[in-house]
Amino acid sequence: MACRRFLDKAVAAGHRKVRIITGHGLRGDGTPRLRRRVEQEVLPGYLSRIEQTGYEQDGAVLVLWLKAAAARPGGAHTRHERQHRERLDVADREERFMVGFERLESAGTALDEGDLRRCRLKLNQVGREFGFGVAEGALDREAAERLLASHWDRLEDLDRQA
Questions:
Q1: Phi and psi for 66 in degrees, rounded to 5?
Q2: Which of 60, 71, 95, 159 counts the highest number of beta carbons within 10 A?
Q3: Are residues 26 and 101 in the same domain?
Q4: Separation CA 152–CA 86 (nearest Å)
Q5: Do residues 81 and 133 share a domain?
Q6: Rounded distance between C-alpha atoms, residue 42 and residue 5, angstroms
Q7: Are 55 and 40 in contact (CB under 8 A)?
Q8: pLDDT tens column, 132-143
Q9: In a domain? residue 22
């Protein structure tokens, strides 16, 4: 319908006030012949964009005040948002590595104390988190030392690459 095309163009152009003639225009007698049809079939699709409605010329002209279009963020705002996301990503990555290093320190402490079960637990937590693999079954001291050294080296390499 022509009325929908007209409203779509008005919204796209950012117009705030539009008039829809619901009579016969200049040749008509001024009676609102299409008003009910426009109000029932067209306007419900635009309710989210219409701020206020009114009438002129005894109801033959439907006046719509449209809502202002949402402002698009400018370049500075876009850059700020991108930098904010990057800072959050760096903080998440650094926190992840910090937790990994703390777990490896706990594994080393447990190894020094002779608690091989806790040592294996901490090594497996780091292994799962960073995809290094896990130690199946019980570890002896020598295997735990090799696995701990391997995890330290691999985690430091990942930290340098990040």
A1: -90, 150
A2: 60
A3: no
A4: 26
A5: yes
A6: 10
A7: no
A8: 888 888 889 999
A9: yes
Contacts of residue 39, Cβ cutoff 8 Å, sequence gap at least 6: 62
Shared domain check, 59 and 84: no
How many structural domains does the chain have?
2
- Reported as a single tens digit per residue, the pLDDT across 6-29 is 888 888 888 889 998 887 666 666
Domain contains 29: yes
Q: Give the separation between CA 143 and CA 146, rounded to whole angstroms.
A: 5
**Residue 37 lies in domain:** 2-66
User: Kind of pairing, strands 17-21 and 61-66?
Assistant: antiparallel
H or E element, residue 83: helix 75-113
The model carries a pTM of 0.51
Query: What are the strands of the beta sheet with 61-66, ordered from one edge?
Result: 17-21, 61-66, 50-56
Do 151 and 84 fall into the same domain? yes
Answer yes or no: do 40 and 105 share one domain: no
